[in-house]
Amino acid sequence: MPADDNKALVIAFYEQAFNDYQPEQAAEAHLGERYIQHNPEAQDSPQAFVGYVHWLRGQFPDLRLDIKRAVAEGDLVVTHSNLHLKPGDRGMAVADFWRVVDGKIVEHWDVIQEVPEKSANDNTMF
Predict the structure, then answer these.
(1) Is 63 buried (19+), middle (13-18) or exposed (0-12) by CB count in 10 A?
(2) Per-residue pLDDT of the chain (126 residues; tens, 9 = 90+)
(3) Using a CB cutoff of 8 Å and minimum separation of 24, what contacts does 77-81 make?
(4) Residue 1, pLDDT score
(5) Residue 104: in which H helix or E strand, if any?
(6) CA–CA gap between residue 66 and residue 84 (Å, rounded)
(7) What's the CA gap between 117 and 110, in Å, rounded?
(8) Has this prediction a pTM greater than 0.90?
(9) I need a labelling partner for 26 at 20 to 30 A (CA). Which of 36, 64, 92, 119 fits?
């Protein structure tokens, strides 16, 4: 599958799972039967992903994920997003790394950092 197709697949998955709050449909359409999760707070498997999204939404019902950019090369896709847990918060800067095989997401890594109130420079995190 071309890198641009992988990028479109990941963006569609992420939007559907979190912003449209349809994790079951997102997992069924976009995750492989074996889904490996490297976030230490999440378990492996598509079913575990669905449970994680429901848990997160239960804690933060107004959660919003703003994907700022995505880059794809080969079977890897990287997204850079601002995750807002509550309306009006500064959010968290999230870098996600996804591996796609045969049109399905099979592996995920992430790095998450809260957006600070003050910065040592005039640049944004996005």
Answers:
(1) middle
(2) 799 999 999 999 999 999 999 999 999 999 999 999 999 989 999 999 999 999 999 999 999 999 999 999 999 999 999 999 999 999 999 999 999 999 999 999 999 999 999 999 999 999
(3) 77/3, 77/6, 77/7, 77/9, 77/10, 79/10, 79/11, 79/14, 80/126, 81/14
(4) 78
(5) strand 104-114
(6) 8
(7) 22
(8) yes
(9) 92
Amino acid at position 89, single letter:
D
CA dihedral 76, 78, 84, 90 (to 10 degrees): 160
Q: Is 113 helix (H, G, I), strand (E, B) or coil?
A: strand
Q: Give the pair of three-digit tokens for residue 3.
A: 């890198």
Measured in degrees and rounded to the nearest 5, phi and psi for residue 60 equal: -135, 80
What is the maximum span of the chain, computed from C-alpha positions, in angstroms? 44
Helices (H), the chain: 3-14, 23-30, 46-59
For residues 41 and 43, what is the distance between their CA atoms, to the nearest angstrom? 7
